Amino acid sequence: MRIAGVLRVALAGLSMTVAVTTYGQADTRLPYKGTTAAVVDGKGNMHVPADYRTTYQMLGSWAIAADNGPGSKQLHVVYASPGTIAAYRKDGHFPDGTVLVKEVYKTNTKPMTTGTVSSAGTLSGWFVMVKDDVGRFPENKLWGDGWGWSWFDATDPKKTTSTDYKKDCQSCHIPAQASDWIYTTGYPPLSR
């Protein structure tokens, strides 16, 4: 009886040692849970999540004015991974692992009874950002300044055309640097 008790304690200790060792050896580049792990591979390559329209939360939309004439030339519709809005409203920060997906559309502009209206036309592509608080992919040129950054043409949501976030992505976000590179004022659900 005493030997059985000692064996149980030893087995419990061994199980705990294995669990702690396994946890300690986990790939710290991929701590993301749920939706993020499905967007980023072990090398930091990103793709557009297949189910973002049904599982993500809509943050808001932007219209880019036409260069000449009335209406807009582009419409941007932005989604955030589940839980992002509640977390941001709690402390004013995007939690590590947040995924933002921006759809970019060419627009159709026409007169309507309410005035000149621009609506989503042809999808041009997606811009995907993944929050990274610890710099998990220092060798990948699409990661830095707290985010993974990637543009995807509408023809291929799995292969980015971006090669370096500083050259291809960040310049559009310079005015939003103080708000973690995101134009948070354009997203009503983030208001606290």
From TrEMBL:
InterPro entries: Cytochrome_P460 (IPR032033), Cytochrome_P460_sp (IPR038142). Residues 1-26 form the signal peptide. Residues 49-184 form the Cytochrome P460 domain. Keywords: Signal. It comes from the Bacteria. This is Cytochrome C.
